């Protein structure tokens, strides 16, 4: 599991984690066109595994990028400050990455994604709504996922602290604020998917 638990214990890394029920994500139904920028493409590097050499994966963490499998170009870079010219990419993906950023950074990242997308380019965002904390001593919440990428299924989990107020409406508002149209939205339990289009 990838998490932002800086105190996780080596022997029992999941001791303090409250896991969701299993959620399925089927990537095979998505048509990711052209040159793809994957924001936060370290960790499992799911989009890199799915779309291979089409993908440029950026992540501020060298360690996370090194760990990510897949035949894509990996560059150490922060989503808040993309070192690409305007209108460079046909597609941008953000796969369970916004949940790891600080709320004040979200608007910067959305502005940057809009800037580097070509006209008619599409942004695909998958993330989760962190539920209210139930009666539990566990300090972290994690979503359990099985992701179908066609030739295999990836089983993983993404964890974070309780209390972050990120949800589907928050990202739709950000998208509209920076000039995107919303062309698809889908909720599956605690997870959701939103597709944005640049005019
Ligand atoms: C743990 S991964 C999970 C999702 C990942 N997309 C995957 O396929 O497994 C989330 C990544 O977001 C990265 N991240 C955090 N803040 C970021 C930022 N400001 N810009 C880009 N990536 C960021 C983290 O370094 C981490 O590698």
At a glance:
With 199 residues, the protein is an alpha/beta fold. The chain has helices at residues 46-51, 62-67, 103-116, 168-178, and strands at 17-26, 36-39, 55-59, 73-76, 89-95, 117-128, 140-148, 153-161, 181-188, 191-197. The radius of gyration is 16 Å and the shape is globular.
* Portion of residues within helices: 10-25%
Enumerate the spans where pLDDT stays under 50 for 5 or more consecutive residues. Answer: 5-10
What would you say the CATH architecture of the domain at 31-128 and 166-197 is?
3-Layer(aba) Sandwich
Biggest sheet strand order reads: 4-3-2-5-6-10-9
Q: What is the chain-wise order of helices and strands?
A: EEHEHEEHEEEHEE
| CATH uppermost class of the domain at 31-128 and 166-197 | Alpha Beta
For this structure, the CATH topology of the domain at 31-128 and 166-197 is Rossmann fold
Report the radius of gyration as a whole number of Å.
Answer: 16 Å
List the helices and strands and how they pair.
Blueprint: E1 17-26, E2 36-39, H1 46-51, E3 55-59, H2 62-67, E4 73-76, E5 89-95, H3 103-116, E6 117-128, E7 140-148, E8 153-161, H4 168-178, E9 181-188, E10 191-197
Parallel strand pairs: 1-7, 2-3, 2-5, 3-4, 5-6
Antiparallel strand pairs: 6-10, 7-8, 9-10
S-adenosylmethionine is lined by residues 2, 39-46, 59-61, 64, 78-80, 95-97, 100-101, 105, 158.
